[in-house]
Design goal:
mainly beta, OB fold (Dihydrolipoamide Acetyltransferase, E2P), 2 domains, seven-stranded mixed β-sheet, four-stranded mixed β-sheet, 13 strands, globular
């Protein structure tokens, strides 16, 4: 018998949700950079603790100010290098403050606007707000790009289909 196994597609972004326990300014190379980057300590389920580096390149959904005690989800690249230290430390690409009733998907979408892990398909009919991370109208096609998608409901199909409330194109990561 010939058994062939297909590798399931994987999202390029991993995430951790938890409560922000600490925010410390850090510098890199010069005193001028001090305070432009923040090291955020996040406590997740089962008291897991992870540090996230939040820089000026990190997109924070809705430009919300992050504070100690706030619940948020931190997204980071699955293929990014990380130092072998404890607690683990990752560079945050996207931070999503928790909000009741809002769902967020961060990942790559193909030419048919299906996510890389085939979990979500976007229906762009109607007035969908498509912007860049600096909140400017995105004038291109969001297909074949890394996107931050906010939505409230989906179909029960595979992939789940949704008409997003907002799509943010992560231009620097696409």
């Amino acid at each position: 018998m010939d058994y062939r196994f297909e590798q399931m597609p994987m999202n390029q972004y991993l995430s951790m949700s938890g409560r922000i326990k600490s925010i410390e300014p850090v510098g890199y190379g010069s005193q001028q950079a001090y305070g432009c980057m923040m090291l955020m300590g996040v406590e997740g389920e089962n008291e897991n603790y992870v540090n996230f580096m939040v820089t000026s390149a990190t997109y924070v959904l809705d430009y919300e100010t992050l504070k100690v005690g706030m619940n948020a989800t931190f997204y980071y690249r699955a293929d990014a290098p990380a130092p072998l230290i404890f607690p683990p430390q990752f560079g945050a690409v996207v931070v999503v403050p928790e909000r009741e009733g809002r769902f967020v998907y961060v990942g790559h979408f193909d030419e048919e606007l299906i996510s890389a892990d085939a979990a979500l398909q976007l229906n762009m009919e109607g007035a969908v707000d498509v912007v860049t991370t600096n909140n400017q109208k995105f004038l291109g096609n969001p297909a074949n790009k890394d996107l931050v998608v906010t939505y409230t409901n989906t179909t029960r199909s595979i992939p789940a289909k949704t008409t997003p409330e907002k799509v943010v194109v992560l231009c620097q990561n696409s």
